[in-house]
Amino acid sequence: MKYLVSFILAVLLLSSCGDKNNSKATPVTSDKEIAVETDSPEISKENRQNKEYLISRVKQIYKDVFQYYNDSIDNESIPQNSPDENYCTKGWNAILAKVSEFDQIHNPDDIGFFDADYWVMGNDYMDLSVSDIEVVSFEKDKAKVELNLHNCGSITRVRLDMKFVNGNWFIDNFIDVSNDIDWKKEMEDYVK
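The structure assignment produced for this chain is given below.
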């Protein structure tokens, strides 16, 4: 675990050495890097209040995440880094860490909490895409976005609870609307 944390910190440090002059870049690696890259208050205000930008952000997130999954198929192994670090809030990542710690202690030889993947809403994945993305609730720094997630020929309606943090939108929760699964609540209940 100690080595994994060191590796993640090294990757974040190396990834923050990119071009800081491009403040409108959508793909990002962490909340911290966004704070550096989005130093213009006009950009942050514009992105926070723009539903079209929010939809494009969700499309870009899923495009990047699906590339991550496609690469894992091509390499026949799951990559060690996680899209959660790049596209989810610190609060989401904190509860993931608690679940991981809980499973290491209480379920070291078992699957543990995650018997399905919230990014693809299933165990397996193939032919991943999203469609019908719509903003269903929009406040100053919070939004709810719904989309159809296509995986293995099935469609699952998903709601993303989004937060505007350090100049961009991040996912704070995944809700499988089709099967009534609130992933964050389920994780919080699991570690109690």
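Interim note for the steering committee: Confidence is low (pLDDT under 50) at residues 1-42. The helical segments are 2-15, 31-37, 41-48, 51-74, 83-87, 90-106, 183-190.
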